[in-house]
Amino acid sequence: MTTTSLTPPATQRRRAASGGRPPGRSGTGTSRPGSAWAAPAAVFFALFALVPLVLVAALSLSSWDGLSGPEFVGLGNWKKLLDDPVMLKSLWLSVLLTVLGVAIQTPLSILLGVWAAGHQRNRAVLSAIYFVPLLLSATAVSVLWRAVLDPNFGVPAQVSWLFGDGNLFGVQSSAIGVLVFVSAWQFTPLHTLIYQGAARAVPQVLYQAARIDGAGTVRQFFHITLPQLRNSIITSMILMVVGGLTTFETVLILTQGGPGTDTTISAFYMYQKAFKSYDYGTASAIGVLLVLVATVISLIMVRLSGYGKMRSTMEGL
Amino acid sequence: MIKRRPNYLAGFGSLVWLFLVGLPLYVMLTATFQSRSDYAENGPLALPDSFTLDNYLKNLDNTESGFGQYFLNTLIVTVCVVGIVLLLVPPLSYAIVRSRSRLTNTVFRLFLLGLAIPSQAVIVPMFYVISQAGLYDNLVGVILPTAAFAMPVCALVLTGAMRDITPDLYEAMTVDGASSRRIFFRLVLPLSRGGLSTIVVFSALQAWNGFLFPLVLTQSAETKVITMGLYDFQTEHGVDTPGLFAAVVLSMLPILLVYLFARRALVQGLMGVGGK
Question: Nearest residue on chain B to A24, judged by CA atoms?
């Protein structure tokens, strides 16, 4: 036995706190990895995610058409955006789509998830089919639904008693309806999966105790299952909000932001500004707005779920 | 054990959802085996009365749409992204869980912040950076940002998995005189297999289904990935619905195969992304 092996753990912890040791040599002093282990990932991430993040802020203060170099214009882009009716409308539409998405997908996926958490054989088979939308890319989902809902060759043309003239993409309300529905079709399985996992983790003792007290299925659901799903509800809702605010492929492929600008949400408007109007500065300003909103939501998420503080996922059990 | 009475309401609801999920899949599959004129004539909901494989063959034929090339490109992107993630994230998570240095903690906070950066929001500067680096219209230019944006979730998932390893095991190996590198390879990696398969599933799906980075960062047919192929098909030959559907089926075929043969791993993997 060497002297190191006799060192009590507490001393090792203190020694490791100095950090910064390259991994190879650490065997002699301590068995804790230094921060060098995190360096390659950190550098890579900084280059391809954080540098663009800083640049987007810089570009939002410049005018750039993609040909000559960017030129500093101060708050010019921001002033333009404030006066832009399409921009304000796009913010409102982003919020509307997100709220509708959360309001529809949350109850649906909780019910489906809790239902799928049962161990009956038919549920396993049905769940297997439910998950198919998860395997399709957002592109494939949008392309698929665009063709299925096609006014001339799609389902609406064949089932006119339900869809009227069949052009769901021609009116704002039904175009928004399509976007909300297709997003729900695509993402409900993922959230169902989250709730299914969480519902299976609820201790059976709680249900047994409730049954002894004479609580029925509905009461069990509201007084045991729902409270126990709290953390999953937070995670899933945050995923929905961030995902909803940044919906892009669905809009690009299904409605192209139309009719007119009636489904032009902020993320899509930014794309148009950049790669259709070549107004990269204004597009960057919209990008900064998106980052700010998403960051605020994510910080709330970290606060609520305690990800940052948690030392072990088994803590608190 | 879970419920004594059958839950009719939930059962009915689940059937409604099954219908909604199944309907477009049915329309898509039956359409792919019909000719364009038959599909237009019979309508999407009819039972098919003819059978042809033309739609698939047309897509696979290189001269007409180049799907083979797109497949290869997508495969290259996916393998490289998964490779980068597997190379970089495990040491990172190990450091986050075990290192006591303040720097590592800051790095973790940066990655948590990264969870909130939507890729759309930085697409303009990404376009700028990739163009300046001379990687525009190059698969490398798609691989690097895709990998970077898959990393925060992967780091979070794997960190969660590694935190579940009990401290006693580390202590035991330390007592035996193991270096942190040895602990990493002999203890941490084997015991976080579940987390590792989750990040493989997640990053592979991100890469395979990626849309925005290829859309903005590539241009020519040589660098086209499958999602771009679908998008082009839709904008250029949108009226050829059966052909388009066949392209969609082809695009999901590899993932569907994985699903059929490794459903548990895939579902557990996706569950891990949201579940922890």
Answer: B181
Find the helix or strand (DSSP H, E) in which B166 lies: none
Stretch 183-242 of chain A: residues touching chain B, C-beta under 8 Å: 185, 188-191, 193-194, 196-198, 204, 207, 217, 232, 235-236, 239, 242
ipTM of predicted assembly, 2 dp? 0.85
User: Which residues in chain B are closer than 8 Å to A115, comparing Cβ atoms?
Assistant: 7, 10, 13-14
User: What is the per-residue pLDDT across A211-266, written as a single tens digit (0 to 9) for each?
Assistant: 898 888 888 888 888 888 887 887 788 778 878 887 888 999 999 887 888 999 99
The CATH number of the structural domain formed by A91-260 is: 1.10.3720.10
Chain B positions touching A221 (Cβ under 8 A) are: none
In chain A, what residues touch B5 (CB-CB under 8 Å)? 217
**Hey, what CATH topology would domain B65-275 get?**
MetI-like fold (1.10.3720)
Q: Tell me whether residues A31 and B180 touch, CB distance under 8 A.
A: yes
Taking phi first (over 0 means left), then psi (-120 to 50 degrees means alpha), and beta for anything else, what does residue A297 get? alpha
Query: Where does residue B273 rank: exposed (0-12), middle (13-18), buried (19+ CB within 10 A)?
Result: buried
> What are the extents of the domains in chain A?
91-260
Separation of CA A79 from chain center: 30
Please state the domain extents for chain B: 8-52, 65-275
Q: Searching chain B, which residue's CA lies closest to the CA of residue A2? A: B177
Query: What is the residue whose two structure tokens read 């991430």?
Result: A45
DSSP category for residue B47: P
**Cβ-based contacts of B136 with chain A (< 8 Å):** none
Beta strand ranges found along chain A (DSSP E): 62-63, 71-72
Q: How confident is the model over B265-276, as pLDDT tens digits?
A: 667 766 666 544
Report the residue count for chain B. Answer: 276
